[in-house]
Amino acid sequence: MEMKEFYYQDGLRVSVFNLDHKAIPYHFHGEVSDMMYCSRGQITIELPDADEVYTVHPGEVFQVPHPSKHRFVNGAPVGTLSRYVLLQIGAFDINFVPAAKEIAGQFAGRAMTHVADGAVYIEGRKNDIIKLADHFEQEKPEVLTPEEQADVVEALRCFASRGIEAGHPQAAGQR
């Protein structure tokens, strides 16, 4: 697993994750939601509190509302790299979950729900996300390859075009 965190300003955090077949550890956020865009391979999202497993393919998005426990897994065949672009809006925080092996066991062999038309809630930040996409189209962060740069621009444009300009309705305090 390779994480490239390259932008965190004005309440917007953007990262790229290249997943081999090691999963991101189970975690949750108290303040931010994870909005992910699958750019390569297939990403599986496990949500233990909801007892749900989802899968997204290239060009598709998924949002995990805070404070849901979750992890992202490479759902593509072994030996195939999967990549996703992560956007978070707000003050970043992360809390790792103990007893991850026990949690992972509940998802072994489970059927997944494919999310083809996932919604993302961008909290009124559409113009900021578009400006950020324009910026990264013109200027490549040092840590990114040209392919990753193109994926980031595509992901940000997707978040802006499909985004609902409100907070996630399932996020803490909005139930």
From TrEMBL:
Gene3D superfamilies: Jelly Rolls. InterPro entries: RmlC-like_jellyroll (IPR014710), RmlC_Cupin_sf (IPR011051). It comes from the Bacteria. This is Cupin domain-containing protein.
